[in-house]
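Much of the work behind modern protein science is quiet bookkeeping, done one molecule at a time. The protein below has been through that process, and both of its lines are reproduced in full.


***
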Amino acid sequence: MTEFSSSGSSMVRPSFETRQERHDHGRTLRRLVRRSAHAAWTPAPDRADPVSLLIGQGRSRIQDLLPIRYDRMRASPFAFLRGSAVVMAADLAQTPAAGPVVQSCGDCHLANFGSYASAEGRAVFDINDFDETYPAPFEWDIKRLGTSFVLSSLESGSSARQARQNAWIMVKTYQQEMARLAPMSPLEIWSDQIDLAAAIEGFSDKHTRKNISARLEARLESARDHFGLVSFDKNIPRLKVKPPLVMRLPARDETIREAFARYIATQPPERAVLLSRYRLLDILFKVVGVGSVGTYCAIGLFSTADGETLLLQIKEAQESVLAPHLSGPDFDNQGQRVVTGQRLMQASSDTFLGWTHSESGDPNRPVKKLDGANRQFYVRRLKDSRLAAIGADVAQEGLDDYAALCGRALARAHARSGDVAMISGYLGSGDSFAEAIVTFAEAYAVQTKRDWKDFRKAIEGGILPASTT
């Protein structure tokens, strides 16, 4: 059986049983929750109003940025799905769950996968957004990812049949990857990575293989040039302003400087020695993504006395949209939740991951109340957005190849924290689970379109503010 721990320091704990025993237990779960049951989607009679959920979520965000968020969300049903994780979390909580729990992405859609350079400089493919990560039923991420493939496929001009096929490929690849990982030792699973260059060689379309390989090499090279974000004046580095989405905000500058200082002061000794070689020279604020718009996000330029640079990103962490619907771990700092989730799910993690907050006083004192001057953050090394966008490039070239890549990455991420043998035992080798998830994804895509239309009406009626950027 899988259980939550009472401490935020540990997340999901598989039982200490043999692999075969856990696999057999997964098979018995089919009698409790049939795999076909995952196809069901019917809005609950007391379903929360999506617009009201978004308004409630927006109260803790930077109000001046909400019009940008809503404008991005009204572009299409898929864009709305990206920004409305809070809505789908409430809906998923009403759906059947077989029992196995994993460290969930929490906002699992196809745009939240991508590539980044490992510590060895190799491009790896993985989930790359963990703002909503939390322990949850393993089905939730799969259902949200499947819905995203249905919507994105239709919006790119694919037929309904092809949209269904793309979602099917993702789920079947997830199922097959779980079967591959199940016999492996925990250490083997923990170190398993997806080498993007090798994965590209396995793409079905020759044209896609050639184009993506060329882009990958070019973007790996860009990482050696500060991602185009840094300029030098007499060997003094400065960050480049790119308004209106990358800019200086002097009124909020001190909040970020204070948070960075607290982050550095609380690092373990070996990382503190490394960071002591650098000083914070410059800060820029950045509007990112769709769902994250309205939260604090900034880039810190650190430099040695010789002008050698280190770029760190600091990003606000609020409560996961999954947390209200689950009895899971409690965190004194939501940045810790994000960092813990990322370390659990990613095969090649970031050396600089850490968490901090903006309140003055004891850096180790928990911060419970969030307001304009009191926010919680996580810190990571800035990744090249152009390299991360390789995933989007693959999706544009061929959604079927991308669907397989995402299914593989999600299964590997779930296998690190969840009971891979139990999940594999539940899934089996047949098509029942995949058919059910695809049916759900199609039905929820229709629901998303309805919600998107109501969302647009709320903007047109002045209930929600929106403006173009």
In short: The longest strand covers residues 279-286.
